[in-house]
User: Fold these one by one.
Assistant:
Number 1:
Amino acid sequence: MAEFDPGPTNAFATHWDNRPSYASVKARFRMNWGPIYYRGRLDGSAKVIIIGQDPAADENVARRILVGSAGQRVQGFLRKLGINKSYVMVNTFLYGLKGQIDAEAKTISASASIKNWRNQLLDMLKTGQTQAVIAFGTGAHQVVDLWPGAAGLFVAKPLHPSFRDDAGLRANWNTVLPQIRPNVTPEVAPDMTPYVGNTFKKADLENIPARDFPFGVPKWMGTGDMAWRTSPTQIAWKSLAADG
């Protein structure tokens, strides 16, 4: 039977239905596709809470966060921790941010309605199984600093997977991973090899598992990014065509 994510339970669905309004700050966000909420386990089994920044094109289509190239880098990061299922991911913002995390974006993130709603969500995600929170990027670093519930969890603040300097990003992750490993119980054998070289290669990535997607998404979802898939020479399109 094909794996897929059945969606949120009643408690999460209710909380997301009561999301804060972004109307007063809509000029900073791409809101046409609506909010994108999460990816991963909502059943209380998550050992790791991942905090990202905001959704982009792939996320809009998939209706799940961190599924494009940044998400596949994060999935590879989790593989190095020996975590392949027990995680849940949420973003700093529900909508795609126009531009980078700057002073204005931080002010929006810290506003009472957005901060308090997000903290309530994080409180719902944190269970007795949760061991660590990994906040990727400047926006997420602020989120975890603003969340009282982070107390008692190991907190890591690596660079965002879309950080523009691949060499610097890889060096940062090589430093952070050994700090996290002793604080998270692996599900499978961790990949102890450090990132080598100055650029990400396919071997450094991990495809997004089907269980993280809603039912019926195409097979190529979670295997590349929008630019990668729009080239007719790429493997994803060839594979899709071969499957008929």
Number 2:
Amino acid sequence: MPKPVRARSIDGILDDVFRQYRDYFGPLLLISLIFMTPVAIMNAIAGTLVPTINYQLLLHGQAGISALVRQLGQPQSLGARTAFAGMEVIIGLVAMNVVTPLLQGTYYTLGADTVAYGSVKYPIWTYFRRAVKRWGAYLATTWLIVGLSAAAAVVLGGALVALVIAGGAKSGAFLAVLLIIYLIVVILAIWLNVRLLFTFPCVVVESLRNWRALRRSWALTKGSFWRLFFISLIASIVLGLASAGLSFLIELLPSNSLRLLGTGLISIVLAPFYALLIANLYIDMRIRRDGYDIELMTEKD
């Protein structure tokens, strides 16, 4: 019989996340290393293409600024930065289409079992195989969201162009409207991010995809926006502080490539934390909405 699980308070969820991160640090780190190390190495290699820029020239007044501009404008510098940008695009596509679906899929299935059953129920490779099986659905849902975001950006861009044509970009009214639009977009993005927080756990745990996963997340988060927002904010602050402290040490490294590799290692270590938080919140909301705790109590091993 699975260990009974109940709905928890915010502090209870955070306590469980820290405990799970500590207790299962080894398996989680192994998952991170498998998927994220190649990306970290690729970023470090890409960093070797970028020439070292002497930003201390900015301390030498106008002459230093002019020298820095000339340095940035050199053909070899421009070519290197173009190559770096191209590699970053390739790395980003690999991360979005391969690394993230498999990594997050493994995190979410392992994390959900950890919450629901009180421990990791299967060997780590079982969770990886589950993620592989749901890779196509995860990818399809990702590109659906990307497409919707692109469509929204086109609509917003068209609205801004219309405003420019109608009122002129230098008018005070235009700048005020632009600021209002910006604030609305930020608020809307935060709201949608919270309402769709469980989209990918639904994809890999409940075998949903595309619109069904989006609707499922929407239903699970209904009426719980502020609770989910604040607990996500607290976790983001904790991760931000931890990342900032480690990044300060990384900046002491002598080369850009080493700094990029160090940044990748920070991501490898911290990545499981937020995934565990999402898994905890996801199971918690299923208990609150679906009576999932009763289902677990009647389920046999």
Number 3:
Amino acid sequence: MLKEDYSIAITGRQIYEEDSGEITLNTVGTYTERAGSRFIAYREYEEENPSISHTAVLKVENGKVTLIRSGTSTRLILEEGKRHLCLYDMGYGTVTVGVFTSELRSTLRKKGGILNIKYTLDIDSNFSSANEIKIEVKPRQAVGA
């Protein structure tokens, strides 16, 4: 069970050929530090069936972020200046995608901060999309405060 003592705001931008889109997710979750790595965890709900959720965990290390979703085979590795082949669960099957991270900036500290990541996705070495994600983590305000 997640403690949910942090507010997590995620903004994702995707550019695909001539089209682009942006999603925003404001949620609650946990933010902890263990063995020099920081962990951001929150629940994601399925669009088709909101009663089904998966826990998303971002492991933030120096110059590297790993995204893992519970109950799926998704494991994305975002490492600045490198391309990784990663598994991504599409809901109806898993695909292998190439992930090249061009920029990874973190101001995460003990009480939160901001994580900015720019990366591209490719499938079978063919460009799929350019992506930017911003994750802001801060302690939740106590109710009535």
